[in-house]
Amino acid sequence: MRTEVSFAPISGIATELLAVLAADTQTAKGPEAKPQPTLLTTDAAVSAAAAEVLGTGEYKAGANETVLIHAPAGLAARRLLLVGLGKLAKATEHGMREAAGTAVRFAKPRGIRELTLTLPENSSERLPHAVVARAAAEGAMVGDFDADTYRTERKDQSIQKLIFATADADRPAIEAAVREGVIVGESQNFARSLVNEPGNKLTPTILGQRAALMAQEVGLGWDVYSTEKLHELKMGAFWSVSQGSPEPPALIVLRFEPEGVHDGPVLGLVGKGITFDTGGISIKPADNMEKMKYDMAGGAAMMGAMRAIALLKPRVRVIAIVCAAENMPSGTAQKPGDVQTAMPLAPDKPGKTIEIINTDAEGRLVLADGITYARQLGATHLIDAATLTGAVSVALGRAIGGVFSNDDATYAKFAAALAVSGERFWRLPLGEEYAELIKSDIGDIKNTGGRYGGASIAAEFLHTFAEDTPWIHLDIAGVAWVEESRPYVAKGPSGIAVRSILEWVRSY
Ligand code: BES
Ligand code: MN
Ligand code: ZN
């Protein structure tokens, strides 16, 4: 998709589809208070073209509600699309993200390849134009994605050209905001495209190749290691997951080292990259097992975030580790009862021993070594993302992810990042009560601790390896895959966490 910014009056823009935002300006409450759909433009010709439909009361400007007007009189556009933002008083930049996605997803299946999206004229301190422009660009990019690469007859093709029309006089600010939004949206889509790949098309080795390719494109430092390096680093936990598959593991390292930044924090991003999770010897039931191709969504999120970081260049050093493996049952697979030794933090220290209770609790195993490696490489602050537990979706459902942290100041930064990203996460507890449940009679720790509080138990397992390093853990098992299409986003891989991780990094 090519994007442009136009500062011309919108009624004069010759375009296949002119999308204009509308909001409900009714402030009174009660049964008498009818919705008051109001266009967020002062263009008289657009107002005239929309007057008829706005007068009928059939269109209420609800969130993502659309109405199409063909051959609008007095406009150079072929079609006029009104896109609702809902109540104006409650409008947010995230609402703008969705509205932009809605406009794009309206156009796609109708064979419309080019459209113009009008940014709202009303600006406020709460919603400055540049913030809204960035959100619109993100939403449009995210809306343009469909997980249809394996359809021989693709139903809807991508938008080729998208024009953002604005009345704002500050050209450079709006252009920079749109550019930024495009980078963020594209990076999220990059993660989604990886998550969409099935296990046979995206092995750990291929994920490593994709990481290297991306790193070269955007100028990140990178290394992709495999079996030998795992043995050299004594990554016994990571290797134990990989050992059951003929596909070798990939230990992916991406580095962002901005010029002239030699001190301050080093942020460590650690992603779970299980390219397929059968459960191993503790094999999963057949129902829905195909979904376990998305068990590398945490790793993909880190790769997407690193792509955006490389292009947006914050003044902070960042290192990402993705632990990629396939969790398979076989004659060489690990067994329940096996004891594994995790990577030691320093060569002279012993690694912690882990009693394997359930080979399906493999994510925490690969992450344990990923976290230790990030700390060994000098990470001062950690964030990990993983499709770690079914339990997190029991607790929070399919729209909100779980976040855990051992440090309130670091968590506060993440909470602030959420306000910018528009993504939804809810903090869940860590605690000695959970740590108690994973004490092992045989080794230092066991990899499962019973049914109740499963997301917190898994998080507490990781905490054992993060120790005192300020750390955020994101459990995205419930939110990495969207089951139902929405007006503004396709069903399939969500690309969740890319935006929040990016904003968290930028806050340093
Ligand atoms: N990859 C799964 C978690 C998962 C479940 C992701 C559903 C996405 C959707 C993880 O490796 C796993 O199997 N977790 C187990 C842990 C249990 C054995 C303690 C689970 O949640 O059942
Ligand atoms: Mn599993
Ligand atoms: Zn898994």
Based on the model shown, name its key terms.
elongated, 7-stranded mixed beta sheet, binds manganese (II) ion, binds zinc ion, 8-stranded mixed beta sheet, 508 residues, alpha/beta
How is the secondary structure organized here?
Layout: E1 2-6, E2 18-24, E3 37-39, H1 44-56, E4 66-70, E5 79-87, H2 93-107, E6 114-118, H3 129-143, E7 161-165, H4 171-196, H5 204-218, E8 221-225, H6 227-232, H7 236-242, E9 250-256, E10 266-277, H8 297-312, E11 317-327, E12 339-341, E13 353-355, H9 363-376, E14 381-386, H10 391-396, E15 401-405, H11 408-421, E16 425-427, H12 432-435, E17 445-446, H13 454-466, E18 471-475, E19 481-482, E20 492-493, H14 498-506
Parallel strand pairs: 1-7, 2-5, 2-6, 6-7, 10-11, 10-14, 13-17, 14-18, 15-16
Antiparallel strand pairs: 2-3, 4-5, 8-9, 9-11, 12-13, 15-18, 19-20
Helix pairs in contact: 2-3, 3-4, 4-8, 5-8, 7-9, 8-14, 9-13, 11-14
The structure holds ligand BES, manganese (II) ion (MN) and zinc ion (ZN).
Number of strands: 20
Radius of gyration: 24 Å
Question: Helix share of residues?
Answer: 25-40%
Strand content: 15-25%
* Arithmetic mean of pLDDT: 97
What is the helix tally? 14
Indicate the overall shape: elongated
Distance separating the two termini: 31 Å
Report low-confidence residues grouped into runs of 5 or more.
none
Question: Strand arrangement, largest sheet?
Answer: 8-9-11-10-14-18-15-16
Helix/strand class: alpha/beta
Largest sheet: 8 strands, mixed
**Which cofactors or ions or other ligands sit in this model?**
ligand BES, manganese (II) ion, zinc ion
